[in-house]
Please model this.
Amino acid sequence: MEARERLTEAQINEDLLGPTLRTPRWFWPVAGFLALVVLAGVVSFGLMINRGLGLTGLDRPVMWGALITTFVFWVGISHAGVMISSILRLAQAEWRRPVTRAAELLTVFALSTAAIFPLIHVGRPWRLLYWFLPYDFPRMVWPNVRSPLIWDPAAIFTYLSGASLFVFVALLPDFALARDRTRGWRHRLYSVLSLGFRGSLRQWKLQAIAGILLSALILPVFVSVHSIVSWDFAVAMSVDGWHATIFAPYFVIGAVHSGVAAVVTVMALMLWLFGWKRYIRPEHFDSLGKLELAVGIGWFYFFFLEVVFGLYGLGGPDLAMKQMQLTQWPWSLLFGIFIVTAAFIPIPLWMFRRVRRSILAMFLVSISVNIGMWFERFLIIVPGLARKQPFAFSWGTYSPRPVELIIVAASFALVLLGLLLFTRLFPPIPIYDMKEGQVLHQDLQVGRRRVPGIVRE
Amino acid sequence: MVSHEHAPDLTPDRIAQDGLRSLLVSGPRFFAAARILGALFALGIVGFVLRLRGGFEDRAAWGYYAGLFAFLLATVGSAPMVAIGLRLTKANWRRPLARAAELYLVGGVFLFLLFIPLLYLVPSAQGRRTIWFSWPNAPHLWDAWALAMLVVCGLLVLYASAVPDFASARDSLPGGLRQRVFAWLACRWRGRQRQWAVQRGVLVLLGAFYFMLLVLVYTLISSDFAISMVPGWRDPLFPTYQALVGLQAGVATVILTMYLLRRIGYQEYLGVGPFWSLAKILLALSLLWFYFWFSGLIVLWYGRQPVEQNILKLLWYGPYLPLFLLTAVLNFVGPLLVLMWNPLRRSVVGPAIASGMILVGTFLDRIRFFVAAFSVEETGVALEHVPPAHLPDGIDMMIVVGGIAGALFIYLMATRVIPIMAIWELREGLLLRARATVVRLEAIVLGKPS
Model:
């Protein structure tokens, strides 16, 4: 912790509520551009429905491609939000304050975007009803509930509901603040949303208890979601390289790796766009960098075990699968990009304090991590399916087509647009939390040094 | 809110006096404990010699010995991680418990000595399925090297942490042999700014290095001494599961040590706060225990492959089913039922009960895996026949009891050389702590230097 500027409550209100109540000049051009990209994605999806899945690069035996990769990627991104917010709240880490809301919002928007992808992927979205309705009504042939593919929607929607509730509870005091400083439709909106919050002792107590309870309860849900996504692959015997016991924790820690990086990206963008230098400081990036370093090394350890035990058989399909990923063109190129961008660039760089405290460097490294993590998921999914197996007599290969690439790009635009629109209505940094931080922050005189301190009892 | 800190009326002199007590004062309870543990340790050595006379051909006979080694690695090897981890995260509440945790590092030498006979039991990696892929001198040389690095690194961490306290002992003793020994150990420590900076740097760097080496050693031990012994067992999650159970046992070991320290007069330092904080970590690790176990099981269970079914039968629902059930109860169900309630979590007894259960559960868990792996005689690519449970004989019991007593005996002797409380850390805590009035409330402010 570092000595920091003392801010009055009025200053905090003005700084953090300002961009919500007054539209910045850059807002509409940026939002318009993102909306156009989303529209292009919608049109591509429409084309896919109209012309069929033949527009994609999917071909037997590779029937899961860039769209499912992007689904797994966004589920992964969604993981950091609640993890950062819950764990840092439970651990009472002071540096969490400006980070938590952006992280939670990332969960909500990334997860909502992820949930759209299976719909797009099936090509006939109405057939998604078969996920929970019988295939054959007269004979009552139901989907197999032992399949993780059936558990997926339940896990995702539980997580989405929990995360939304989590964001809402944390927003209550800020809704009340905005209500008291607005007129017209905004006032009416914030009045409804603030649920009569007046800042009484009892209301604060209930809000705090709800926050702690939700923090503790949502953690198992967060772990379960990506575990179930991993079991979509791991319980299947049909694809070599997928049937590994380590998949669930490997997916979860990989999700945290990419998710925390995404939080860094969003934090840097918020700092640059809204000019919140007094709130999002290098010490926050430093702390996020240390967290990323620990998570990154942990993820690399799981990755290492997955590779070593993939080769362990000294023969057979698993070895062939690893050989294909590591040595066969173009997978070898993708593997190189993946390992360099997700591990070899970021992990050593995070060891340096100067890098961790440089916002530009942290921003670039966070982008690098997510490029690598997208390729990681691609390399798990596609080569596994593309490898020649017994009893399959059609050997297409896979490369994503423009329709898929546009939809993937649109998903990034959709998440960014969601975040941007949110900032027009609600403050992306928890105002009440920042004020509490100011009250709890006290300097201590130790010898000749002034040491930043925090009130704990 | 319960204070995480030590009692407010402590002074630097009082801390030094209490901290040095373990070095300078030996009560009858100390001698009684030393005699009992020493006798049991001697019994263990006798058991070891008897086992040694049978040679290394019968690998199954050494299964309990391997289980004992794995159990001590989980406790003696992992307990210091509590001090190292909390120091890296700058948690203030670590101060009264850090030394009790890191003092287990002295047991590293004992661990290494225990490890040597195991090297005679594991076959070479040449022509076998191991993580070494026929690497020269694997796994013997490299496993021993990794463990040796862990032990040396641990001893350096302990020494770096204890140097300021050696200086305190040197300055508080009037003279004589002990004073000269502490002066030598203190290595001209005067508490200069540069010395403190070096000490902190060493603690952070070596602490992080110790953690990585510990994970490496878990990976090597679990893959070379368990997975590769059983044909067809290929479980990348197992090393991480072993590391996780090790951390769980390490935290439990520290909680039980704190409980004992309270019983011998350190209750003023070890209030409910550190128990409460460690209990939260223990609860999280217990939940992770279930998650790791379930993640491994569901994939093997869904696989339905004959080779995997035999592995499941050997390790879970076959001859060692009672041990597995007991482990599940003691490592997960029991701690969860105790620690899920805040009044119990926020007490001294609740975390101590949960810790006792976890240590017994971890011991059974290690026995289950290592005895089962050592009892397999088959080679090849798949386990065709599941061997029956290998029950312990008298010699196994002597070795196990003697081994655990030996580790405790070494810890007890170490308290005569290294203060059981980190005096410098507690004094630093006093400096970084002040009373303040926040709005209308009296509060404690904790300094967090960058």
About this structure: The CA atoms of residues 36 and 410 of chain A lie 9 Å apart.
